[in-house]
Amino acid sequence: xxxxxxxIRDEYGIHGRPAGNLVKAAKAFQSALTIExxxxxSDLKKLMALMALxxxxxxxxxxxxxxxxxxxxxxxxxxxxxxxx
Amino acid sequence: MLRISGTSILxxxxxxxxxxxxxxxxxxxxGTVADTAxxxxxxxxxxxxxxxxxxxxxxxxxxxxxxxxAAIFELHxxxxxxxxxxxxxxxxITEEKRSxxxxxxxxxxxxxxxxxxxxxxxxxxREADIRDxxxxxxxxxxxxxxxxxxxxxxxxxxxxxxxxxxxTVQLDKSKLLGFVTRGGSVNSHTAILARTMNIPAxxxxxxxxxxxxxxxxxxxxxxALIVDPDPDVLARYRAKHEAEQRELALLQELKGLPNRxxxxxxxxxxxxxGQGSETQEALRNDAQGIGxxxxxxxxxxxxxxxTEEEQFGVYRRVAEEMQGRRVIxxxxxxxxxxxxxxxxxxxxxxxxxxxRALRICLTKPELFKAQLxxxxxxxxxxxxxxxxxxxxxxxxxxxxxxxxxxxRRELAAEGTAFGELExxxxxxxxxxxxxxxxxxxxxQFFSIGTNDLTQYTxxxxxxxxxxxxxxxxxxxxxxxxxxxxxxSAHRNGCWVGICGELGANxxxxxxxxxxxxxELSVVPSAILPLRKRIRGMTLSEQ
Lengths: 85, 542
What we know:
The structure holds two protein chains of two kinds. Chain A is of the alpha+beta class.
């Protein structure tokens, strides 16, 4: 199991099409992926659940990957977040 | 004649005939099915077809109104792939033996309601998207045709309960004069589309389908719909609409032209913004730069101070969007009158005269340095300047500059990229005006904050309406102070701008030009009208 934290910089937080692309990126991996923000938590492969977390600019999220390709998953998600959010 | 109020999206006028668009209700059969495998297969085919439809709509919208408006259809495609949504539908089919259309409709309603109940207004507005996506799939399954709604031959005012993105994209834009809906909000797709198409819209209006075919007026400024106006009222609005159209056309002609008088005197005109998202509006109005980027929004409505990283993201994006045009970021300018509890500001008798702005920053260097570092780092991505508010002494400026230098040393030692930063101060206190020569030797530019300068000079509280008759914005004392400031600046190699409201006052433009003011920074909508005024002007002989 691997994880990392990231602070959202995008002024709209996690929303709309970028949220959709984040879920798409997560779905490419076998590992289970979760995202947590304080007490809120959801499966990173589920768009509506992710949007429902209402993650805003300035909040810090904890992304966890667990499975055979967890290293690649972590790298990919971290890369996507740094570039897009 | 009826007058019904609503919330206006664009403060302009539209005149035309109302046309009612009624969404046909889908008939959803609620019986049970025997062959659940067949239903699941039907579902899969319908989902694929819906995906195809959405792709076509995306491409059409992108071609007609740009990628930003088309993005909504990509989001719809992704919602259709959401596992929770699909699991809920499949469960209704296999467990409760419902038809595919019933399952889709029911699951859609359930998820839509979840979003409708959220605190965040952006998320609440997504309820309409989830319904739209579900209805699309349900319509395919029921064999109902979602025919394109024809607007008729003459341009009209479209009236509806609400308009989903897939409905508006089908409309012939050349036939649309405006929108009126019962539902929707300033965050809704209708509002976004109206702004992009630059046509008036009213949301939150108690519409009546029986008004279909009646003449009407959308009064953007008055925030009302006038149905079947009396002849004199109609004539008045028609004239107003024509004047607006002439103004718009004229302003469009001014884009790209220099702010120069007939006898060759120039002045730079920039935009004041209070949010990163307003940058596009500044560019649309042909701003030569951002003369004042109010950074307060990053600090307000939060439980803890914004981090350097968070601020860097915002400043960097604005610097990049402005593509080499200067962006002046004003450092934190908050006092006890605004909400930022983490700053621990005690209640004050006179917040305008109190512990605020630069005073807070110099007392809390860690807070200040986080902002300064973020600004320095953003300077590597565009042309950025920093400006300190509420300056009253040379010492304050030197302290701020020393902290800025500390940040540069630290960033260099860390190997973090940062860029050149033009440094300036706001002139908004009488003290600053009186010592302007000394201050000018410390910085590269001044920006005159006429709102606060007037308040402090005339000893008047801006917020008190009883004082309105005593508040004289173009008071000779203020004009004299502006002139003194400009002279001190130029004597010492600084440029000087005005970022307070007075800058947009057309009656004073000639005066400012004659004083040699180098830059005016105003609300984006004032830029082109000022340009028009300047280009028609010849500076009169004294």
